[in-house]
């Protein structure tokens, strides 16, 4: 099997992508993502995909130069439309947007919403991601709702006395330990953002707590949970 240097492969991929209609900036982004996949050992998502991209462009399934549109945005979430652009380009821009939002709110979530929707419609509530390890069948998967980890909980509230005590009471009722409250100075009390970190608990407990919290009358937005991932 021939071996190529990463830079050589990026240059080759870039030329092919420009040839099928990608702009130089798009080609740079896509080539970097594809070669990075090869370097990580995920050859199924490496430069081998360029042939598929070329075919999808010809069939109108991918639109080079498609605008990245922010349809709706709140301080910690955004609904975006890639308008059938290249997935690597849209995902990169969505990630950059998520990082920008997280700098002011402390938390943001970026996900492939189309894939999530397909899994929800066709999968089991206890489903395992199709990206799981190929030898998963040799082991018994643990339901995602039973896995335990620490969480960031992001809130936006109409501030008044007793809010932290109320939230802490709900967490305690689900046997969830509160670790810290993180709050930056804010000019307005009518849409006050803050973050609570909690000790390791199950996703099921977090779901139940957030469902109860979302009914509280001082919430200006539904609370969000983000798991703290530990190093592998």
What are the main properties of this structure?
232 residues, alpha+beta, Hypothetical Oxidoreductase Yiak, Chain: A, domain 1, Alpha-Beta Plaits, four-stranded antiparallel beta sheet, two-stranded antiparallel sheet, 7 helices, 6 strands, elongated
Kindly describe this structure:
With 232 residues, the protein is of the alpha+beta class. The chain contains seven helices and six strands. The chain has helices at 6-19, 24-39, 50-58, 87-105, 113-122, 163-173, 203-213, and strands at 69-73, 78-81, 148-157, 178-182, 192-202, 224-227. The protein has a four-stranded antiparallel β-sheet with strand order 4-5-3-6. Strands 1-2 form a two-stranded antiparallel sheet. A hairpin with a 4-residue loop joins β1 (69-73) and β2 (78-81). The model has no long low-confidence stretch (mean pLDDT 83).
Order of strands across the biggest sheet?
A: 4-5-3-6
Q: What sequence of helices (H) and strands (E) makes up the elements?
A: HHHEEHHEHEEHE
Could you say what the CATH architecture of the domain at 148-227 is?
2-Layer Sandwich
Our estimate of the beta-strand percent is 15-25%
Quickly name the level 1 CATH class of the domain at 148-227.
Alpha Beta
The total of helices stands at: 7
Q: Name the poorly predicted regions.
A: none
Could you tell me the mean pLDDT? 83
The SS-based structural class is alpha+beta
């Amino acid at each position: 099997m021939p071996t190529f240097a990463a830079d050589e492969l990026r240059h080759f991929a870039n030329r092919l992508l420009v040839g099928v209609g990608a702009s130089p900036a798009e080609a740079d982004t896509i080539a970097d993502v594809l070669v990075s996949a090869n370097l990580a050992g995920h050859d199924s998502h490496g430069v081998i995909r360029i042939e598929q991209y070329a075919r999808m462009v010809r069939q109108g399934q991918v639109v080079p130069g498609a605008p990245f549109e922010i349809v709706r945005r709140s301080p910690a979430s955004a609904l975006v439309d890639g308008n059938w652009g290249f997935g690597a380009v849209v995902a990169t821009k969505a990630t950059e947007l998520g990082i920008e939002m997280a700098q002011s709110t402390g938390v943001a979530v970026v996900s492939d919403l189309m894939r999530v929707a397909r899994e929800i419609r066709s999968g089991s509530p206890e489903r395992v991601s199709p990206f799981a390890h190929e030898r998963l069948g040799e082991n018994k998967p643990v339901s995602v709702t039973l896995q335990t980890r620490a969480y960031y909980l992001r809130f936006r509230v109409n501030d008044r006395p007793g809010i932290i005590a109320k939230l802490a009471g709900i967490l305690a009722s689900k046997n969830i330990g509160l670790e810290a409250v993180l709050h930056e100075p804010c000019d307005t009390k009518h849409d006050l953002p803050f973050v609570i970190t909690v000790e390791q608990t199950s996703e099921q407990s977090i779901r139940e707590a957030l469902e109860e919290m979302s009914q509280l009358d001082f919430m200006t937005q539904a609370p969000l949970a983000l798991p703290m991932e530990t190093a592998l």
